[in-house]
Amino acid sequence: MQEDDIILVDKPAGITSFGVVARVRRRLSEQLGKKAKVGHTGTLDPFATGLMIIVTGKKCKEAGAFSKLDKEYEATIQLGVKSSTGDPEGELTDVSSKMPSADEIETALAQFRGTISQVPPMFSAIKVNGQRAYKLARRGEEVIIPAREITIYKLEFIDYSYPDLRIRAHVSSGTYIRTLAEDIGQVLGTGAYCRELRRTKVGDSDVVDATPVAV
């Protein structure tokens, strides 16, 4: 780890992206003997794990370019249940005991491949009228986020054992896997939320080359 560097980090669950940056900053500052400049190139939700690209020093100017890169994820979607936040941190509500077949799931996934319209979740870091959407949502205020065009280049299911559906997705920047999980549940008529999420790639960078960070 050094100044003016690009660092690949494997984020664990249970820590925020800002927490990861703080840990890297503290360690680098100790090495340099001065306060280090450290930033990230795209957040991961606290429950999510996987690749984060951290930039230091002069490399911080390149953060925006990294944030626009395509990404790959592996996720576990739990069917039959909805979450108020689309992830394990929200309030869970049973929706249906319907058990879709593998063929039904493949038919549902096919609807999301290609360029589609997606409405980002209320509990997200997107700014609405200058404030983070999740802060407004937590205060109980109405949050209206316009739909955006995204591209899902690849979407396949790795494994299916009801109620858990494991998928792999290669998506454009700005895609929310939490929303994708909910939309899949809606098409299947079961309800769903994203129970586990791991980012495996950002552009050409792979999580196998990343350094784990302790919680």
Reading the helices and strands in chain order gives EHEEHEEEHEEEHEEHEEE
CATH fold topology of the largest domain: Pseudouridine synthase
Q: Which stretches are low in confidence, meaning pLDDT under 50 for 5 or more residues running?
A: none
Helix-and-strand structural type: alpha+beta
Helical stretch tally:
5
**So what's the overall shape?**
globular
Number of domains: 2
Question: Share of helix among residues?
Answer: 10-25%
Mean pLDDT score:
90
Count of beta strands:
14
CATH class category name of the largest domain: Alpha Beta
Biggest pleated sheet: 10 strands, mixed
The CATH H-level superfamily of the largest domain is Pseudouridine synthase
Q: What is the name of the CATH architecture of the largest domain?
A: 2-Layer Sandwich
Radius of gyration: 18 Å
Separation of termini?
A: 19 Å
Share of β-strand residues: 35-45%
What keyword list fits this structure?
single chain, 215 residues, alpha+beta, Pseudouridine synthase, 2 domains, ten-stranded mixed sheet, two-stranded antiparallel sheet
Please tell me about this protein's structure.
This protein has five helices and 14 strands. It is of the alpha+beta class and 215 residues long. The protein folds into two domains: 6-68 and 204-212; 71-202, Pseudouridine synthase (2-Layer Sandwich), CATH 3.30.2350. The chain is globular and about 60 Å long.
Give a summary of the structure in a few sentences.
By secondary structure, the protein is an alpha+beta fold. The protein has helices at 17-32, 63-67, 102-110, 133-138, 177-188; strands spanning 6-11, 38-40, 49-56, 71-79, 81-83, 92-94, 114-118, 127-128, 131-132, 148-161, 164-171, 192-202, 205-206, 211-212.
